[in-house]
Amino acid sequence: MLATLSSRRFDDPSWVFERKLDGERLMAIRERATVRLWTRNRIDVSASYPEIVDALSAFDSAKDWAIDGELCAMRGDQTSFEDLQKRMHVTNARTIATAGVTLAFWAFDLPRFDGHDLCPLPLTARKDALRDAFSYSPVVRFSEHEEEHGLALFDQAGRAGWEGVMAKRAASTYQPGRRSPDWLKFKVVRGQELVVGGWTDPQGARSGLGALLLGYYDGDELQYAGKVGTGFDEATLARLGTLLAPLARAENPFTEAATEIRKASRTSPAQTHWVEPRLVVQIGFSEWTGAGRLRHPRYQGLRDDKDAREVVREQPRPLGP
């Protein structure tokens, strides 16, 4: 079940409000004695997060369950998507042990428990079951919520440096895979996922690549959103180069003409390289321009949990009661 971005903040007794977490959305599933972690696009990432799997394996009050949650790298009470990148795709035990990243899986919904489908139940009933069924720890945490008072929680989010706030209709059923107006998100910090459609050569002392050429889907068309050339370190540049190399293609994947993109990115044909639009990245930015381009974009990390064809331009709408 996916949330819809909203610009309308509100109080309402028929809604509950939670902290919006900046991490990787995962579904934890137990079948008999085996626990696995799955991304939204059905990739098994259990081997990358053994401490989460071990902690969830102790949740043995039922033979099977499915917990919807967010995996976060923690710096004290703050989440760090940058730190989480150090653990994504990593399965080597020594590298995991020396990464110095503290992980926490925040559980916020329970679609299935002990052979029972809980999806038709109201959200508050599912959250009550989730809270009561397990014992939590710093490794696996229960995502608390506030009833009715969304405005106060949004103010708290701004003071605490959270990414934002989630608003969920208390009576909402769980609708797998569907983006629903019963779940809303309000962002304090602007950012969203975008698709990489190309890259440019580096300038000066930089190695690997200069900037990523970004876009989003509007129907079947990949719309150009601009380039990002900040937020990389040497290790990130090397990793992106490795991931992009096998995706190389001769044709421009964007609807905008290649000449226009090169003009906007100030590159020549020889300095511009196109790729199959499969890689999804997280980008922070200050705003969208009137021409539909990102202003002050900065690279924040890879998104393994998002399929490229699901990436659209997020437009806040005045949704809510």
Automatic annotation (TrEMBL):
InterPro entries: ATP-dep_DNA_ligase, DNA_ligase_ATP-dep_C, DNA_ligase_ATP-dep_cent, DNA_ligase_ATP-dep_CS, LigD_ligase_dom, NA-bd_OB-fold. This is DNA ligase (ATP). It catalyses: ATP + (deoxyribonucleotide)n-3'-hydroxyl + 5'-phospho-(deoxyribonucleotide)m = (deoxyribonucleotide)n+m + AMP + diphosphate. Residues 299-321 are annotated as: Disordered. Keywords: Ligase. GO terms for molecular function: ATP binding; DNA ligase (ATP) activity. Residues 301-321 have a biased composition (Basic and acidic residues). Residues 96-229 form the ATP-dependent DNA ligase family profile domain. Belongs to the ATP-dependent DNA ligase family. NCBIfam families: NHEJ_ligase_lig (TIGR02779). Signal peptide: none annotated. Its EC number is 6.5.1.1. It comes from the Bacteria. It is an enzyme of class 6 (ligase). The keyword Ligase applies. One of its GO terms (biological process) is DNA recombination.
